[in-house]
Amino acid sequence: MRAQLRALAIIIMAVLLLTSVVFATNVDLLILHTNDIHGRIEIGDGMLGMPYLRALVEYYREQYENVIVMDAGDTIHGRPITDRLEGESAVISMNLVGYDFMVPGNHDFNYGYDRLLELEEMMEFHLVAANVFKDGELLFDPYVVKEVGGFKIGVFGLATSDTYTTTHPRNIIGIDFGDMIEAATKYVGILRNDYNVDLVIALGHVGLNASRNISTEVSGIDLFVDGHSHSLLMRGERVGDTLIVQANEYTKYLGKVKIDLSGEKPVIEATLISAEEGKERVQPDEELNDMMKEFRDEIMRIILGN
Which of 17, 30, 227, 301 sits a CA distance of 20 to 30 A from 167? Predict the structure, then answer.
C-alpha cells in the first residue's frame, strides 16, 4: 500500500512539474523595456549602454518569436554624447537597438519641442503621447495598434505635466499636457471597443504614484510600462488588474515582461535583468561600440570648430 501511495505521489509530482514547464514556455509576447536613460547610451560601470542593449534584444529575439521593445522616456538628453548632438546620437542608437515604442519624458523636451519633432522624423519607432497638445491639437500619435503573432496589441502614451516645471519654459511654448486619467479613459475605450485588442499597454513617463493612481481609476489597462520616478520594481507592482513595471535608471537594468495571451485574461510575469547579468549573457554589439567613438569624434570636431 505504501509503495502504491509513493508511486502515486511521484506521478502527481511529475504531472505538476510538467504542467509548470509547459506553462512557463507559453509566452505569446515578450516586452523589453527601459526608462530614464538620461543620455547614458555608452557602456559604463553598472550600466549596459546601447551596445549591450542591442545585443540583449537580439539575444531575446532569437529565443522568442514575438518581442516588443519600449522606452518610457527621459532618454535623449542628459550627457555630452547626447546633448552636443541634440539627441541625434540617442535616436540613431535606439534605431539600431530595435526599439518599437517610446513616450516623451519631461527632459526629452529640453532641446525644444520643435527639435523633438525633428528627432521623431529620424525615429524608426513610434513616439506616442495621448495627452500632449500644441494649440489644441495632439502633438504626437496618441496610440498605436500592432499585430503580433495573431494578437492585437494596443499601446497608448502618457507624458507627465511635471514638464511645465522641469524644462525651460521656452522649450514648450504653446504646449499643454492634458489630464492623464481623462486621456487614459478615452484611449483605453477606443482600443477596447473600436479595435477589440487582446492587450492594452500604457507607456507612460508619469512616475509610480501617478501610474498607481491611473491604474486605480482607469480599468482595462493590462500593463503599465512607466518611468520618471526611477523606481526599481524587480517583479513589477500590481494595482487592481494592472501590472506596473519600471526598470530604475541609466540602463542599470533591462525590464523583461513575459505575457501569455492564450487564456481569457493575459497572464503577465515581470522581471529585471541587471547590467551585471546582461554583461555575463552577451557581448556588446560591435557596430554600436564603433558608433560611440564616431559620436565622440563628431563632438570633438564641433568643440574645435572643424
Answer: 301
Task: Encode pLDDT of 145-187 as tens digits.
Answer: 999 999 999 999 999 999 999 999 999 999 999 999 999 999 9
Contact criterion met (CB below 8 Å) for 253 and 187:
no
Q: In what order do the strands lie in the sheet with 267-274?
A: 126-127, 101-102, 67-71, 29-34, 253-260, 267-274
Digit-coded pLDDT (tens) for 45-80: 999 999 999 999 999 999 999 999 999 999 999 999
Structural domain containing residue 100: 27-304
**Residue 21 within any structural domain of the chain:** no
| CATH classification at residue 224 | 3.60.21.10
Angle at 57 between CA 61 and CA 113, to 5 degrees: 125
Return the closest-CA partner of residue 273 out of 32, 55, 73.
32
The answer to whether residue 9 is domain-embedded is no
Neighbours of 151 (CB within 10 A): 17
Q: What is the mean pLDDT of residues 219-241?
A: 98
Tell me the pairing of strands 126-127 and 101-102.
parallel
Long-range contacts of 270-277 (CB under 8 A, 24+ apart): 270/233, 270/235, 270/236, 270/243, 270/245, 271/234, 271/235, 272/232, 272/233, 272/234, 272/235, 272/247, 272/248, 273/56, 275/46, 275/47, 275/48, 275/52, 275/251, 276/46
138/58 Cα distance (integer angstroms):
34
Q: How many domains does the chain have?
A: 1
Mean confidence (pLDDT) of the chain: 93
Which conformational region is residue 96 in: left (phi greater than 0), alpha (psi within -120 to 50 degrees), or beta?
Answer: alpha
